[in-house]
Write a structure and sequence with these properties.
Elements lengths: L22 H6 L14 H6 L2 H14 L3 H9 L4 H21 L8 H24 L6 H5 L8 H42 L11
Helix pairs in contact: 3-5, 3-6, 4-5, 6-8
């Protein structure tokens, strides 16, 4: 009897659910909790967590708050604007990572997640590179300050830009590589399922 499609059909064990986007995540999620986590049935939630909106909203928030005027205004008003800045970072970060870490309301396959994270890195990386390569301090608030650990305002800014770039590259590259690897494995399993199953033949004499 030929093997069932839900059992082994290649040297590696490939389940039928692994060939579908987020199949393993959905299969491991308790049946009583598979319904739209965090109110994903709400139109606003579906809209805000859509990758086409979440990604540019996060990138725009990240960029705008690092412009000199809003950045320095937040530092000058630490009891109000600084909290608003951090709240914007938190909210935009939440909707950025929601499509990656949750299967609802927009289930992305591992290939789509890898591409999504690559786009996030491309959008975020220029800011850190610019701060690390500029030859003058961007923020007057730090230029007027006493400095930390004996660093000049320019050196402080350049170190901050380099650390931003390294952290972003490490995080997005690590997770993107993991999802890309999962995508390639799923493609291998899908090819194995698509291949015709031939019954063994015996030589007749």
């Amino acid at each position: 009897m030929p093997p069932s499609p839900t059992t082994t059909s290649s040297p590696r064990t490939c389940s039928r659910t692994s060939s579908w986007p987020s199949g393993r995540l959905l299969s491991s999620w308790p049946a009583s909790r598979r319904r739209s986590p965090a109110g994903s049935s709400l139109p606003a939630a579906r809209l805000l967590t859509h990758p086409a909106l979440a990604l540019p909203a996060w990138a725009l928030t990240y960029l705008v708050w690092h412009l000199p005027w809003p950045y320095e205004a937040a530092l000058e008003h630490q009891s109000t604007l600084l909290h608003l800045e951090h709240a914007c970072y938190f909210a935009s970060g939440l909707i950025l990572w929601w499509p990656v870490l949750q299967a609802q309301p927009h289930a992305l396959g591992p290939g789509a997640k890898a591409a999504y994270l690559a786009c996030a890195f491309v959008l975020a990386s220029p800011l850190g590179l610019v701060l690390s390569l500029l030859s003058v301090p961007v923020y007057d608030f730090y230029a007027r300050g006493p400095g930390l650990w004996g660093l000049s305002p320019l050196a402080d800014q350049q170190i901050g830009g380099v650390s931003m770039s390294v952290e972003e590259a490490a995080l997005f590259a690590f997770l993107g590589a993991r999802y890309l690897r999962s995508f390639l494995r799923q493609e291998e399993c899908a090819d194995a399922f698509a291949a015709p199953i031939r019954a063994p033949t015996s030589d007749r004499r």
